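Final report, Chapter 2: Outcomes

The project's central promise was a pipeline that accepts a single protein chain and returns its three-dimensional structure in a standardized token representation, suitable for archiving and comparison. That pipeline is now operational. To close this chapter, we reproduce one record exactly as it appears in the project archive, with the input sequence first and the structure output second.
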Amino acid sequence: MFNILKIASAKSSSNCVRFSSSGSSLRINPISNLKRFNYSTSVNTDPFSLAKQLSGKHFINGEFKNAKSTFSVVNPATGEEVGKAAKGDSEDVNAAVSAAVTAQKTWANMHVKQRAELVSKCAQVLKEHSEELARLTSLETGKALRTESRVEAGVCSDSFTFFAGLGAEIKGETVPFNPSTLTYSHRYPVGVVGAIVPWNAPLMLFSLKCAPALICGNAVVLKSAEEAPFGVLRVVELLNTVLPKGLVNCVSGFGPECGAPLVSHPQVDKITFTGSVETGKIVYKTAADKLIPVTLELGGKSPMIVMSDANVDKAVDGAIVGMRFTRQGQSCSASSRIFVHEKVHDDFVQKLKAKVDAMKMGDPLDDKTDIGTIISQAQFDKVNNYISLGRKLKGANALECSQMPTDPKFKKGLFAKPVIFTGIDNSSVVAREEIFGPVCCIIKWNDWEKVLKDANDTEYGLAATIWTNDLKAAMTAANQLEAGIVQVNQNFVLQPNLQIGGWKNSGLGTEGSLGSMLEGFTKLKTVSINLN
């Protein structure tokens, strides 16, 4: 899919692969010699047994570390425990960061072509294990396997492929400062990167943080989400079949005991965080005390504008993708505010409801399922509370869609019917606050200037879309909509080389592209040489 550097494989000895880097030798364990590290390189597509296998463990300095204490991880489709996650603390974080500091020094001195080869091999390993990663993700998050988790696992491996091919772009530039001097800039790794990912797309979001960090010469310490710790833990285990020990580590636990020590750790040089606005602000303040760079990808309440000349059928399909109905709307970039011109409003609503009605809700691990579950009881209750508030709004019409699963084993599952609200305006609570669930608002409009103003009337600025055949309207919207990414007549999900970054309360910095890689994971030095 992506162009990558074609590099001759390194010569192997019987025990290790050696890369010479500034006089040092880096030992990398070949896959054939990994039994002594207790790595599992065979594909295991039984997510239940894999979750048990990964239970109660961190991954630090090239091996699993048993946790001092654990907490339960629940399958949201059944309410049953699938495993126990390691409950990490500052001691675990210290061990992971210490390992990363040691590994990063040698990794940074390795030739970028050699780093690219190894990152590319990581992509290959992840691709070979994509089905098991997808199934494990569906088990712990409740996301539908066919429509969500397989896609996410594919993006995970694609990210490593993509960023492996950008190694040659880690370069500075010459500066025409003075004829009598040679002035140039050079890029260096930032050092140890602390990566904190959420539960809604853990594989994809980790890959978009880890892969660019690695190719730039950094080490990574991941803090997983409490609700979804196993998928990314397995990814880290697989990466360690290729990479030197200590370069990528994973700790799990709760924010105050595990996340906070990672952010505040004196040897962590960069934080990249995806999560809520409230937690993002805490991360930002903590990082500011250390004066280290941060990338924050936070909340959203993304607008989608449908013009009167739009192809309604295509716009409806775009709304289904943009609203992330297959993910129960659990996406920060979900198009949860859909502004539809009055001339096509009724047709749009009717067709959208019909299509969502036709989507099957059920067992996340069943290939016939389109829509899975909400992640947790707390999130389930939050979503239902917003639906109740919306139903009480004057003029509101709540259209329930799809059907609940009938299998008795899913009786305790966190399934929720998608709800489409009509008859409300942009000032209502369900149109202003991020619900993070299968709830969208369709708002009728007839004034072009006002709809642009309403679309921007939000504390968020992550994504926006417009559907029209009018080039002038499309360009006007692209220029005036206050969002980090604006799409016209499409609603692609996050993927490598489609840069996204939040405006306003949606975050700081960007992810997913060459520019974000250089901006987020390198630091610049200027060198000026007097030629006289």
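Archive annotation: The first helix runs from residue 47 to 54.
This record, like all others produced under the grant, will remain available to the consortium after the project formally closes.
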